[in-house]
Amino acid sequence: MKSRRFISKLTLALIMICAVAVVAQSTPTHAFTDQVIQQGATGDDVVELQARLQYIGFYNGKIDGVYGWGTYWAVRNYQYEFGLDIDGLVGPEMKDKLAKSTEYNEQFVQRALNEGRKFTHYGGTPKKVQQGPKGSRNKQKGGEQAGQQPAPAKGGQPAPTPEQGQAGEQPTPAPEGGQPQQGGESPAPETPEQAPVPDEEAPVDQNNDADIEKATNVPPGYSDNDLQLMAQAVYGEARGEPYVGQVAVAAVIINRINSPTFPNTVSGVVFEPRAFTAVADGQIWMAPDETARRAVLDALNGQDPTGNAIYYFNPDTATSGWIWTRPQIKKIGKHIFCH
Amino acid sequence: MLRNIIIGLLAVAVIALGYWGFQEQEQKQVLSINAENNYQRAFHDLTFHLDQIEDELGTTLAMNTRRQLTPALAEVWRITSLAQAELGQLPLNSLQLGKTEEFLYKIGKFSYRTSIRDLDKEPLTDEEYQTLQTLYDHSHDIREEMREAQAYVLKNNQKWLDIDKELQAATEEKPSDNLVVNNFEVMNKNIEGYSEVEWGAGLASIEDLNGEMKRALAGGKKFSKEEAKDVARKYLDLNENAAVHVADTGSGLEYPAYSLVIDDPDHEAHYYMDMSVEGGHPIWFLQERHIRDQNISLKEASDVAQAFLEENGKESMQLIESKQYDSIGLFQFVYLQDNVRVYTDSIMVEVALDDGNVISYEAKDYLINHKERSIDEPVVSLEEAEKSVNPKVAIMEDHLALIENELGDEVLCYEFFGTINDDTYRIFINADDGQEEKVDRLERAERVYDFS
Predict the structure, then answer these.
(1) Phi/psi of residue B247, each to 5°?
(2) Around Cβ B162, how many Cβ atoms within 10 Å?
(3) Which residues form the Peptidoglycan binding-like domain (chain A) (predicted)?
(4) What is the mean pLDDT of residues B409-419?
(5) Which of A3, A332, B266, B437 has its CA 20 to 30 A from that of B291?
(6) A124 vs B: CB within 8 A
(7) Quick check: B323 and A272 CB within 8 A?
(8) What is the pTM of this model?
(9) CATH of range B290-370; options 2.60.120, 3.40.30, 3.10.450, 1.10.287
């Protein structure tokens, strides 16, 4: 629960930052688009969400632009601590709160994201410390951030005992009324729920393991490489077919994986000798298009236009008489699908 | 003079061509020996492992204590999966191998089930001994066929590449009569002849989705093709002018169904749909069209999906998973009865994030399993159930859920979401006896490998 302590330490720093910001009449924070961010989403809003949550120590995972489980728990913890509805949905209220209580250096994050650098986005730590080892190009950026960093409490802030922040390993969230409010002195009315924090300088030695990498959603149990291999097989076998025919071919591959009479892996099924003509004649090594990939995704997610078929053949070119004896289900495009 | 020069040049050309041809030939030989060796290895490994299976099964028959039986059965299970993989590498098709593969699958399943059981508390029953005996007898037959094939391959220097060629040339009228292939076929035929009864409980029936579907749909009102068209238009929210083509599916599908192709004038693209004749339920549909850039959020799309289900009589469905793939939102819903998530009744809906239309729908599980159930109150309290969860897991969320356990029975469970470090887990604790039913590690996003 180091992070919780860290949060409380930081809140004070944040208040100070806000104070500076208010005084300096900073430009209004421009944050997020209008969308309500939901689990499973991808994109820039998610990158921003993760970066902002990391800034205040709620999120310790990779900033990867995919709203996965790690992000979900961070959001819920945030909602819990700040008295919002705990639903994992990032709506306007939460986005407002986040925008006001955190900094987001979009340039820094997006660049690191694109360069595949290891880095973190914790507030209170100079960016250059957080930039990973990858680069000679470790430029120091965000001077303004560095300027705001050292935020030792100045007079006027109530400075409660340091133990308070460290005491509970799992501090119960501060109910709004129960905490001494920051009161009139605080120039940060935006964050009224914040608990008083011990006066310490922000820790510099962050865990820099967390890094940023672009990521993507994959269906459970399959890697993106499996998906690619199947997309190649589908493209090689059925690229001239209508979309539903491509989904059907992908579904046959999956039905075979699940069938006891075929190998149990994607590669086992695809490369089984005499199984697919596209494998035999090398057409599988062509680069698949987006349609084939989408067809595979649909099939992996449960779509099966074939009615659980495990064979298909092209009646114009089929050489084996045996295949005609199988119970036929239907014809999609050029292929007849059967058991 | 000129003649001599020409002769000289031609001679050089012939030699060069000969050299080139020789090299090509040599290369081809290396490649074909390589391919042949791969086949040979798979084949000899396979016979070795089938030998081993027979061996191990034979030994287990005489064993009496758990200390001996459990590792022996685990060994059978391991070797079975090796043999399965090797079968998949031979250039034979299901005609020659299908039943053999099924047989190996059943041996594997039986040995796995019995090896993980606490045989001290629950020793093998007489029936299971009988099954073991039967498996042993069959594996003996299989071994004999394979050994003969192996001896033939070794004696006659039989090449798998030649077998492959022979099989490809074979036709219905003139089937190949290669002894190796014949042995495989005989083995396969023999297994086909084994009666289903001998397999013992839980092994006879291999998962049979279409059969389940048939039973679930049976007795519903029969829809005519015209009625099917109306249902389709209503589902896809199209007016009567939308052209619909209906066809029957082939006899290979156990339940009667219509295949529909529906024109969507808005997108100049088709919908494809399967609908059951009995009950007129759309089983799945999908739309074939290009999806443009994202305009709406995943949240809005999930509302669309929810509304779509409600409009079509699938009420009380709860969203349990949402995922964005580029500009497609994918949503998994399960039926919610008395605040219990019924995981067996699930529906998948995809919504295009460009204009918020439903582009894909799949409800096979829902159609097979859905019914109103009487769900009993949990016997175990939530607090007690929490104690059954591994103490290393930090529990974050809990629900009540109905899932299908390994034996195929529906059980009421507490569903816990929890974390260890960065991993999130879903843990089902039986609400009647506090047993841990199932633990899943939930997937993480996958990093994009970019080499450009």
Answers:
(1) -135, 155
(2) 13
(3) 42-98
(4) 91
(5) A332
(6) no
(7) no
(8) 0.79
(9) 3.10.450
